[in-house]
Amino acid sequence: MLKSLNSAIFPVSYTADFYKKVIKSGIMARLAVENGVAIGAVCARVEIDKQHSGRQIAYVMTLGCLAPWRRKGI
Fold first, then answer.
1. Is the pLDDT confidence value at 35 over 90?
2. 43 belongs to a structural domain
3. Can you tell me which residues the record assigns to a coiled coil (predicted)?
4. How many helices and strands, by DSSP H and E, does the chain display?
5. Neighbours of 22 (CB within 10 A)
6. Is residue 15 part of a domain?
7. CATH number of the domain to which 42 belongs
8. Torsion of CA 59, 62, 13, 23, to 10 degrees
9. pLDDT of residue 53
10. What is the model's pTM?
11. 13, 21, 26, 48 - which has most CB atoms within 10 Å?
12. Count of structural domains, the chain
């Protein structure tokens, strides 16, 4: 489902390796669903910020939703 959403939302294609990493690693992936239909997604991971005393930061890799639901607070 994530792959088909990303294909519809973004002008770039993500490799099969990207999706394998999402499944197997500590990457957070969440879907936005309305009436049983996936309309958006986010993929992010937590990293250690080596430049600022090792605090944790979130790195958002992808964030988007299908055009009809944009600018609606999803």
1. yes
2. yes
3. none
4. 2, 3
5. 19
6. yes
7. 3.40.630.30
8. 70
9. 80
10. 0.79
11. 21
12. 1
